[in-house]
Amino acid sequence: MKKVSLLIAFITFLSFSARAQVTEEIQDRAPQTSAPVAYDAIQEGNWIIGATLGNVGFNFKSDFFSLNINPRAGYFISDNAAIGTEVQLGLDIYDGGETFRYGLTPFIRYYFPEGASATGRWFGEGVVGIGGSSEEDSEGDSVFSGVWGLRAGYAHFIAQHVALEAILGYTRTSADISVGNGESGLNLALGLQIYLPGGR
């Protein structure tokens, strides 16, 4: 009986050891989902490049396709603060035509130290610029107009120089850009940003 109890204890020990080893190997092979580099990425002299993607959709009943993409580049003028510019590009394809939207909106972005973690930062952003549309003037919509907006978001660093961002913002324009039909409104976008170290 003593030998059987000893054998059961030995087998139990081996099974727990093997399970722990397999779990560690699986964790080592798992894709990287975060990196503790948030502070290093947003220091003075660094660069930010990337794009946000929003309002992608297709309506099967009306054959309406919409896509907005906003490439951007910026420079950190101090720790936590960056200035740059964003290009507004949008396309609507529908039965009977298409509308192309464009614009150039300089931005200023600030990363808040409050609520910061090693892998992410909250930020606020303001944009002011100009925008236009290939759509003919209808119901008071301008073909070319000013654009301004306020945004807030969260940057989660998935690698040393790469962050995924979720951004919620309010945009005001009458140029049929970003918010559709020349109206003010809220928009939600997802982005991928690359943070490049400066030549300090």
Automatic annotation (TrEMBL):
<protein>
    <recommendedName>
        <fullName>Outer membrane protein beta-barrel domain-containing protein</fullName>
    </recommendedName>
</protein>
<feature type="signal peptide">
    <location>
        <begin position="1"/>
        <end position="20"/>
    </location>
</feature>
<keyword id="KW-0732">Signal</keyword>
